[in-house]
Amino acid sequence: MAVYxxxxxxxxxxxxxxxxxxxxxxxxxxxxxxxxxxxxLRTTAGDFILTLYEKRVDPAELxxxxxxxxxxxxxxxxxxxxxxxxxxxxxxxxxxxxxxITTFLPGIWPRRPTAAxxxxxxxxxxxxxxAGADYQAERVNALGPAGWRPLLERCGDSADRVEPGxxxxxxxxxxxxxxxxxxxxxxxxxxxDLFPDNVFFLDGAISGLIDFYFxxxxxxxxxxxxxxxxxxxxxDLSFNITxxxxxxxxxxxxxxxxxxxxxxxxxxSAGAAMRFLLTRLYDWINTPDxxxxxxxxxxxxxxxxxxxxxxxxxTDYGL
Length: 319
Ligand SMILES: Nc1ncnc2c1ncn2[C@@H]1O[C@H](COP(=O)(O)OP(=O)(O)OP(=O)(O)O)[C@@H](O)[C@H]1O
Ligand SMILES: N[C@@H](CCO)C(=O)O
Known about the structure:
By secondary structure, the chain is an alpha+beta fold. It has helices at residues 9-16, 62-74, 115-131, 145-155, 159-162, 166-180, 220-231, 241-252, 259-263, 265-286, 299-310, and strands at 24-29, 37-43, 46-53, 92-94, 97-103, 187-190, 199-202, 205-209, 216-219. The mean pLDDT is 95.
C-alpha cells in the first residue's frame, strides 16, 4: 500500500490550476511502492503519475533527482519526465507534502525475470550511465560503503533476533568488503536501485525505468553489481550465470567494462548485497507490527552475500 497522504478532489483541482495539462478525467491511488504516495492521474492531456514525497525523502534532494530524470529523458532514456507548472517549477505543495507530476510510462515489470529480460536491462543500465555523464551535479551515495557500518551499528543486538550470530557475521563480512573496496573506478550518475519492480517491459523491450530516489554519483560497476543481485538469483537463491552473462553482455554492447571494473565485480556485488541486507534488516527491526508497509525479508540478501564472498573473478559472473 502506498497512499499515505489522501488528496481530495478540491485539493487536486487547485494544484492542477498551476499546470497546463487540462482537466482531470480519472484519479486513483497506486497500491505498489513503499516510500511515497503515488497516484495515477488521467487528464484531458494524457496519463501522468502524481507523487507526494513522504517523510523519508529529504525535500532538499528532490531537485537533484528530478533534474537527473529530466536530463535522462531529454536523452531519450525511457524514464519519467517531470512536468513543469506554468511558472517553470516541477515541485509544488499539495496536501501538506511536496509533490511532482511526471509522465506515465507504459509496460509491466517482470515478476519472474529471465535471461531475455537481463540483456536489455544491461543495455539500458549502460545507456543510463552514458546519458548521465554530462549531468554535472554530484550526489553522495548515502547508502554507499561509508553508510554501511553506521547502519549495522544502528541495528545493534537486534540483528541476532533475526538469526543468532548474524550481527557478528555481518560485522566480519563488512570488514572484508571495506578492506577490498576499490579506491577508484569509472564513476558517474547511477540508479542504485534498479530492481525488477523499477523496470517496465512492453513487447520484450524496455519501456520504462522508474524510481530514481536512490540515484547518486558512484562507481558505474557498483550499479551493475546491484542488478546482478536483484536480477540473477533464482527463487531458491541459486545464482544463474546465464542471466548474469546476458546482463553483462547487454551492458557491454553499449559501454565496455574496463579490466579493473571486471576484477572488482566480486567485492562490488558483495557490497551491493550488504547494502540491501542492511536496509532490509534495519526496516525489519524498526517497522512496528501492524504497520501499513510490508517488510522485506533481509535473509535472502545474506545468502547472496555468502555467494559473492566465494567468487574470485569476473568469470564467476559470466564475463
Ligand atoms: N512514471 C510512471 N509510469 C507508470 N507507472 C508508474 C510510474 N511511476 C510509478 N509508477 C507506478 O507506481 C508504483 C510505485 O512507484 P515507485 O516504485 O516509484 O514507488 P515508491 O514508493 O516511490 O518507491 P519504492 O519502490 O522504493 O517503494 C510503480 O510500481 C508503478 O506501478
Ligand atoms: N529495492 C529495495 C527497496 C528499495 O531500496 C529492496 O528490495 O530492498
